[in-house]
Inverse folding.
């Protein structure tokens, strides 16, 4: 990875200011892209580079990125080329990054005003801290808040077995984390990465809203595409087990329920009441 000292002279004074690198993988994400870009450009903290890793988009994404890269050449950078999946894209971004603090933001998500300044202030005041996360709100397609995030203390055992409440878009870490823990896995599973980091570093929290996660039908993580949803549920179950999680961890139960529901729908068709009753019985028996 690049040494920050030889790369940052055009954007800030390396001796006094911390460069923050925000990484955003994207593929055909033109619809919400400018909201994402503007949420970083409008931050009160000025020393930020926003790196986009595009997977050969064909919907106007590349043109938007090129326009911003010309207008904000010291703040917006991108590459557009084929990749091997989200993990490959994340890792490309990490290798390109010149900063001392890293953050990741989905191309349809937005950073909260003042978020980066709050993160930089935290790291300046806590020199022995390497990873911090804040609160993330959930917004709809119009950018309206549909659910406010809640502060919750970090518990690794709970993260491994029950569910992940550490939002990737509201998480930030020092360069030393990458140097010790390494890169993302092939799928770019943020649960796996968080657990790996937590086994090496204490996890800190800022009780402040840092980001907004957009829920919409085209989203890869929250959308309606069943096969993608099934893949992520299975992967989280496997990650949980790989890190010592229970066979019936919360992740695995959610995956088992998805698979069972899929099978029941194939057998019973649209008989929702019977499917729901079967699932209720399985939950009572603690099978799912």
């Amino acid at each position: 990875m690049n040494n920050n000292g030889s790369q940052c002279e055009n954007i800030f004074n390396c001796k006094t200011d911390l460069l923050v690198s925000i990484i955003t993988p994207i593929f055909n994400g033109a619809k919400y892209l400018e909201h994402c870009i503007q949420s970083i450009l409008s931050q009160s903290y000025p020393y930020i580079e926003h790196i986009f890793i595009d997977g050969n988009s064909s919907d106007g994404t590349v043109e938007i990125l090129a326009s911003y890269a010309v207008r904000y050449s010291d703040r917006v950078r991108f590459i557009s080329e084929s990749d091997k999946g989200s993990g490959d894209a994340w890792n490309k971004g990490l290798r390109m990054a010149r900063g001392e603090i890293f953050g990741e933001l989905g191309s349809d998500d937005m950073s909260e005003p003042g978020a980066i300044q709050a993160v930089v202030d935290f790291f300046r005041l806590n020199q022995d801290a390497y990873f911090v996360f804040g609160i993330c709100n959930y917004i709809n397609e119009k950018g309206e808040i549909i659910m406010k995030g809640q502060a919750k203390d970090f518990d690794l055992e709970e993260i491994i077995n029950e569910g992940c409440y550490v939002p990737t878009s509201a998480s930030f870490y020092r360069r030393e984390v990458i140097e010790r823990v390494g890169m993302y896995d092939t799928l770019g599973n943020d649960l796996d990465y968080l657990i790996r980091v937590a086994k090496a570093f204490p996890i800190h929290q800022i009780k402040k809203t840092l980001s907004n996660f957009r829920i919409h039908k085209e989203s890869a993580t929250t959308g309606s595409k069943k096969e993608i949803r099934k893949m992520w549920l299975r992967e989280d179950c496997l990650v949980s087990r790989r890190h010592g999680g229970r066979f019936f961890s919360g992740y695995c139960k959610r995956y088992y329920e998805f698979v069972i529901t899929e099978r029941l729908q194939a057998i019973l068709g649209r008989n929702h009441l019977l499917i729901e009753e079967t699932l209720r019985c399985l939950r009572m028996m603690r099978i799912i």
About this structure: The chain has ten helices and nine strands. The beta strands are 20-26, 48-54, 76-80, 101-104, 110-111, 131-139, 145-147, 171-174, 204-214. Residues 250-268 form the longest helix (19 residues).
